[in-house]
Amino acid sequence: MTSGTETGGVTGTPDKDYNLIWYVEACLNNALRLETYIQDAERDKDTELADLFRKAQADSRKGAELGKALLRSRLDGG
């Protein structure tokens, strides 16, 4: 959060935990959106652009997996 104050009292979730959950969700949404962009580029036979979007999608998936692993360890009490 950018306000400088902890808002966990409002949400019931500490900011750092909320931010981690948001990050995972954003990575997953980005991977889904990029699938559409890949299909658009492929339809126009723009392999260079499709490759860029595939790389970005792989990065988003990796970010989601890293975030999920960290979230999982924290939920398990680790």
Features:
78 residues, mainly alpha, 79% helix
Strand content: under 5%
Helix content: over 70%
Order of helices and strands: HHH
Q: What class would the helix/strand composition place it in?
A: mainly alpha
What Rg do the Cα atoms give?
A: 17 Å
Query: Sheet bearing the most strands, described?
Result: none
Mean pLDDT: 92
Low-confidence stretches: none
Through-space gap between termini? 24 Å
Total of DSSP H or I helical runs spanning 4+ residues = 3
Number of strands: 0
Morphology: elongated
Question: Any chance you could write out the topology, listing elements then pairs?
Answer:
Blueprint: H1 8-11, H2 15-43, H3 47-75
Helix pairs in contact: 2-3
Q: Could you characterize the architecture of this molecule?
A:
With 78 residues, the protein is mainly alpha-helical. Helix content is 79%, strand content 0%. It contains 3 helices and no strands. The protein has helices at 8-11, 15-43, 47-75. Helix 2 packs antiparallel against helix 3. The radius of gyration is 17 Å and the shape is elongated. The two termini are 24 Å apart. The relative contact order is 0.13. The mean pLDDT is 92.
